[in-house]
């Protein structure tokens, strides 16, 4: 590994790949399923931010659970380490969907791209319960394995609630069939939950059954500005009360984010350009009655202005305006990597305290970088990003362990939705007790005794 993961030493108990291994993989996957081409393997060895680099020499492209099973069974017996990969959009270091319209349940393979699944179910009058900026590249298997949150969480909740069943291949090649499509099933432990959010450390997810909510006919999006963070909080409370069941997103970003988005994202414009407000909020409503829903949002906006919570605001009049609003919010991560170096933190913090850490970090970093605060305010999830032209130890020393310690003191989470990955493998104790970490280590040992799955990401567990 290189970059900020440079300190990781190769574990000598893993075997080294040899030509017999490659021949075996070719015998099960064919020539096209075994990639040794350096350029193609190099793409898979680096993450979306270009920050973490691996040294794997082989990329395997299994097409079925049976092929995944044969690969893992072989790797386990040879003690070859395996990194499961989906769309490679993680931020911490071919498929045929089947649809049950009566119950609104999608069953599909892990390699489906989220956006393709969204189009597939939308054609049938449903939506996916999750949506995120990486939808065009990320795979549903990767979403399950990271327990991705995203933009619809406020309305439809966690994947722990929406995933009904999974098929998973364990480290020894066992295909574990938990692919039920039942809403209710209290027979024994609900094992699928162990695989949701375990970042490929316990098994490879190969199939998924997921609940899909009905697609409602009326969607409205508003882009608002607030002068201070307390107004953002009050606005959230007011939105919950007044918009109630039609509220489907409540995203916030500070002035620094908007400035960055305007500088680096092509084709977007600031919908509220008149003066530099301190905070911006994107509110989406989704409901079943077009005129009623819009009137409700307009009345809410007017009242919020009269109450002084909102300084300015606009409701999208067409799809292109709405997608401009969303592009600003979803494009912040893309804009931030363009600066050069990005230190990314993904925190769960009680909403009242959530912006304090942004201000404290800003004063620690000074003019070494720009500090961005944005995220899923409705879920108490802050994305704290520090951007700079290059990575430096001096900057890192201002941020860590400060951010982790501060979050831990608030009993927050150091990873709300992105997972631990390489970046935070050693930091789990800031959010979990040693007893909980020990129990995780026992579970890891039980599922993957040779520790071949996703090496180095769960060092604290083993
Ligand atoms: P990868 O990056 O390939 O893998 C992620 C992890 O899952 C790795 O540990 C990998 O080993 C494991 N894994 C992948 N596939 C499998 C499998 N089939 N079985 C077992 N393990 C597997 N996240 C959010 O939660 N909310 C957001 O709003 C959000 N927005 C994003 C926006 C952008 C622009 C980007 C780049 C990322 C964003 N993310 C967000 C991060 C998020 O974790 C990923 O985008 C997504 O869930 C990962 O899917 P992937 O297929 O790319 O997985
Ligand atoms: C987001 O909400 O935009 C994502 O989680 C990605 C990020 O924080 O970069
Ligand atoms: Zn997010």
TrEMBL record:
**SUPFAM superfamilies recorded for this chain?**
FAD-binding/transporter-associated domain-like, FAD-linked oxidases, C-terminal domain
Q: Where is the FAD-binding PCMH-type domain?
A: 17-215
Q: Where in the cell is it found?
A: Mitochondrion
Task: State the Pfam families in the record.
Answer: FAD-oxidase_C, FAD_binding_4
> What InterPro entries does this protein map onto?
FAD-bd_oxidored_4_C, FAD-bd_PCMH, FAD-bd_PCMH-like_sf, FAD-bd_PCMH_sub1, FAD-bd_PCMH_sub2, FAD-linked_Oxase-like_C, FAD-oxidored/transferase_4, Oxid_FAD_bind_N
Which cofactors must be present for this protein to function?
Answer: FAD
Q: Does the keyword Mitochondrion apply?
A: yes
Q: Name one GO cellular component term.
A: mitochondrion
Which EC numbers characterise this protein's activity in its record?
A: 1.1.99.39
Q: Which family does it belong to?
A: Belongs to the FAD-binding oxidoreductase/transferase type 4 family.
Q: What is this protein called?
A: Probable D-2-hydroxyglutarate dehydrogenase, mitochondrial
Taxonomic source organism? Leersia perrieri
């Amino acid at each position: 590994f290189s970059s900020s993961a440079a300190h990781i030493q190769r574990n000598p108990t893993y075997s080294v790949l040899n030509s017999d291994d490659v021949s075996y993989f070719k015998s099960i996957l064919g020539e096209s399923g075994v990639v040794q081409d350096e350029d193609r393997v190099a793409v898979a060895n680096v993450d979306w931010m270009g920050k973490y680099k691996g040294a794997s020499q082989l990329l395997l492209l299994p097409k079925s659970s049976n092929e995944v099973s044969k690969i893992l069974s072989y790797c386990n017996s040879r003690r070859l380490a395996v990194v499961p990969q989906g769309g490679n959009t993680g931020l911490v270091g071919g498929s045929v969907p089947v649809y049950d319209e009566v119950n609104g349940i999608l069953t599909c393979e892990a390699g489906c791209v989220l956006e393709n699944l969204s189009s597939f179910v939308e054609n049938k009058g449903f939506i996916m319960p999750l949506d995120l900026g990486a939808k065009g590249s990320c795979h549903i298997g990767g979403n399950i394995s990271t327990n991705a949150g995203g933009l619809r969480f406020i309305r439809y909740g966690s994947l722990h609630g929406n995933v009904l069943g999974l098929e998973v291949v364990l480290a020894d090649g066992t295909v574990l069939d938990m692919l039920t499509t039942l809403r209710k099933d209290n027979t024994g432990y609900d094992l699928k939950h162990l695989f949701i959010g375990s970042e490929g450390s316990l098994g490879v997810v190969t199939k998924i059954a997921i609940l899909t909510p009905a697609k409602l006919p009326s969607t409205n999006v508003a882009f608002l500005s607030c002068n201070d963070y307390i107004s953002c909080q009050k606005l959230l409370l007011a939105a919950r009360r007044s918009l109630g069941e039609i509220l489907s997103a409540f995203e916030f970003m500070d002035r620094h984010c908007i400035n960055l988005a305007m500088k680096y994202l092509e084709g977007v414009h600031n919908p509220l350009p008149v003066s530099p407000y301190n905070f911006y909020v994107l509110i989406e409503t989704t409901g079943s009655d077009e005129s009623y829903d819009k009137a409700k949002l307009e009345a809410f906006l007017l009242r919020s202005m009269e109450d002084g919570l909102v300084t300015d605001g606009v409701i999208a009049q067409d799809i292109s305006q709405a997608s401009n609003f969303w592009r600003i919010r979803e494009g912040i991560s893309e804009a931030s990597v363009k600066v050069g170096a990005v230190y990314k933190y993904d925190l769960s913090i009680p909403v009242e305290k959530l912006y304090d850490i942004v201000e404290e970090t800003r004063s620690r970093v000074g003019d070494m970088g720009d500090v961005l605060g944005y995220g899923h305010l409705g879920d108490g999830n802050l994305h704290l990003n520090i951007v700079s032209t290059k990575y430096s130890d001096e900057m890192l020393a201002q941020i860590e362990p400060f951010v982790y310690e501060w979050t831990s003191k608030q009993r927050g989470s150091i990873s709300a939705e992105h997972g631990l990955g390489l970046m935070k493998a050693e930091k789990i104790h800031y959010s979990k007790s040693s007893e909980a970490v020990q129990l995780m280590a026992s579970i890891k040992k039980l599922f993957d005794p040779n520790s071949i799955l996703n090496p180095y990401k769960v060092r604290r567990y083993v």
